[in-house]
Write a structure and sequence with these properties.
One of its GO terms (molecular function) is 2,3-dihydro-2,3-dihydroxybenzoate dehydrogenase activity. The chain has 106 residues and is of the alpha/beta class. The protein has four helices and four strands. It has a single domain (9-101), classed as Rossmann fold (3-Layer(aba) Sandwich).
């Protein structure tokens, strides 16, 4: 069995700081093709400077239309780390757009 991430495209949300940012670096170091997503452009630029192989996308995930538009440009993804900093306490497969629209993004 091959558990290598080499060449696998992994999308990481919440990549601007903290766990998401470090995870992007780790995954890139393991050979993954990382797509780092954050609403904060500055930290993404710093991440790209540190790890030039990482693709960055700056988008506010609370904006459904903008999110769909930029993520539609990703031809495929082998994995998703949904790390954006929100906490909606509900099973993942039961989440709706309305849940996110009503979330207090602070």
């Amino acid at each position: 069995m091959n558990n290598s991430l080499k060449g696998k495209k992994i999308v990481v949300t919440g990549a601007g700081q903290g766990i998401g940012n470090e995870l992007c670096k780790t995954l890139a170091g393991m050979g993954a093709k990382v797509v780092a997503v954050s609403r904060s452009a500055g930290p993404l630029e710093a991440l790209k400077a540190e790890c030039p192989t990482i693709e960055t996308i700056s988008v506010d995930l609370s904006d459904w239309n903008a999110t769909r538009a930029v993520l539609a440009k990703i031809d495929r993804a082998d994995g998703l780390v949904n790390n954006a900093g929100i906490a909606i306490i509900k099973p993942y497969d039961q989440l709706t757009e309305k849940d996110f629209d009503e979330y207090d993004w602070g």
